Amino acid sequence: MKRLFFFFLVSAFFITTIAQTNEANTDNNFENVAQKLLNSDSKLTIGGYGEVHYNQVLNKQTRDNAVLDAHRMVLFFGYNFTGKTQFVTEIEMEYANEIWVEQMFLQHKLNDYVNLKAGMLLIPMGIINEYHEPVTFNGVERPVIDNKISPSTWREVGLGVSGNILPLTMKYQLYLVNGPSGYDGTKALFKGGDGLRGGRQKASKSYMSTPNFTGKIEYFGIKGLNLGISGYFGKSQSKLYDKLDKANTALKLKADSSVIGISMLGADARYNSKGLELRGQFYHSMFSNTLQYNTFTRIGSKNNDLGNSMIGYYVEAGYNVFRFFEKSKMELIPFVRYQDYNLHNTVNENITVNKAYISNIITTGLTLKLTKGAVVKADLDFSKTNASPTRTITLNGGIGVTF
Length: 403
Fold this sequence. Notes:
Layout: H1 2-19, H2 33-38, E1 44-58, E2 67-80, E3 85-94, E4 98-109, E5 115-122, H3 145-148, E6 155-165, E7 170-178, E8 181-183, E9 211-219, E10 225-235, E11 237-238, H4 249-256, E12 261-273, E13 276-288, H5 290-296, E14 309-319, E15 331-346, E16 358-371, E17 374-385, E18 392-402
Parallel strand pairs: 8-11
Antiparallel strand pairs: 1-2, 1-18, 2-3, 3-4, 4-5, 5-6, 6-7, 7-9, 9-10, 10-12, 12-13, 13-14, 14-15, 15-16, 16-17, 17-18
């Protein structure tokens, strides 16, 4: 816990120092659909987004079918009870056959700087987990590290505070939430190949053994620049703590072996100026108690292979070439993104590093913004793991809308 407070204290000091040396600027105080609904003056507001994808693996040796996917259709509803008390919900339909609630929270504004918030909340890690509407990012698919390391879309039940401190051109979020489940009573939900992703509870009859903490600080005081520092700290949840006899040492040790400690740090940056778009993101996840967890959740004669830490980043550059046509309301953005991640960055001595968990991906393509809120995308993914000498090439295409 001391490390947690030290991290956010240093982050706040660093960003505040920058803020004091620059004039106030709010151009890059980004808002997702939910935040736009909260800022609406209407009693009832409706928004949403959707995207359809085409994915085709290109292989010289084999012929592969393309995958066509109505990936997401999402509806937002916001209601203003008063100027201070508001409600927002996000209902998502995935793959044309799954329905999920991705956000559902009540917000009460105390003053210009503090909002109380409770309900089903997005975990404020990185960029994509909060800003995942298809018009907000280049590429048909979201960056891989926002799937493998930060399990987007990551949401849990919690409460906390958020707000803008405009004199410092800063935005903050601080929440207590229930954590991901690492053990459901019968099997492990964390694996070396996908980290925490299998443990997302998504507020679907979720359970909590211990509360976790997450927070983010953003600075947007330099024209065109947005900087973010985020963190997630706590433990995974386990059903073995339910109705646990506190006097039974053996059962307590068994339950303790079914959880891991989680410390995740993130940093992100976005810069836009005169048609140039730059973006980057970094994650470092550290896990404790993994030796006991992997041993306890063994599969057959093999131990589970969750590592002690995961690390990943991407950098991206794009440019709006239609900027040279003054009368054009469309944007055409050629871009390139480089991603690198290692899900076995560090491991226990009884685990062999899996080279398939170490990968880099180059994505290059075009984003055509027909108008505000409507986009057509195409790109090529060149992905390679350390387990293979060759790259897998995938052609992607898609459309997206936000309103």
